[in-house]
Amino acid sequence: MSTLTLTINKQDYQLDNLDPRTTLLDVCRQHLQITGPKKGCDHGQCGACTILINGERVNSCLTLAVMHDGDEITTIEGIGLPESLSELQQAFKDHDAFQCGYCTPGQICSATALIEEVKQNWPSHVTIDLQNPDGLLVQEIAERMSGNICRCSAYPNIIKAISQVLERQVADKSTTSVSNSVQGSEVTGIWSPPPSEAQLGNKSSNNKTANSTSGGRS
Questions:
Q1: What pLDDT score was predicted for residue 2?
Q2: What's residue 131's pLDDT?
Q3: What is the value of pTM for the model shown?
Q4: Interstrand relation of 72-74 and 56-59 (parallel, antiparallel or unpaired)
Q5: Staple partner for 167: which of 45, 108, 171, 195, CB 3.0–4.6 Å?
Q6: Residue 21: which residues within 8 A CB-CB, separation 6 or more?
Q7: Which residues of the chain have a pLDDT value below 50?
């Protein structure tokens, strides 16, 4: 008889003769009745099943439970419960950063890891200065949360909630650039990234071509 021991939310669970093909998501929901992680697409594309493994965010629908014997696993239940919300959970509540709530556990788990990544100065795909990434920028937060889909489109409020916690935890209070970059940025509607340098370059070259053409005709 083979026994798998998983540490989830600081509690040890033993599973005997578990099918090695069982995902960590199915172990949580079907075997242990830990129902915080949600099954959405079951293909790692929506982020509803996001949990933390050793502090890093992972799509639990894509990882096998047998791979995580000895790892520290945290689900939304380990971050905070209704009577003891974490700062981030309270911010989601304050900013109405959810509607149906189905994606919210994954959103909060992902955002919890995001905050730690920003503290460690990890760059993202949209980071301009790789040595000194500014994780407080709206486009940075949106990019870092792009793996979590909200079908209710509560994205502006999700960004506001995360921004609030980031400001409190990692912002340099002696500068005013933080408030200009986050608080001063009104997040309304569905956020879309600013044009890239390549796009701006193409627009500039197109304008030059148009100007030279029109000049030749005059």
A1: 86
A2: 87
A3: 0.78
A4: unpaired
A5: 171
A6: 64
A7: 1, 173-185, 188-191, 213-218
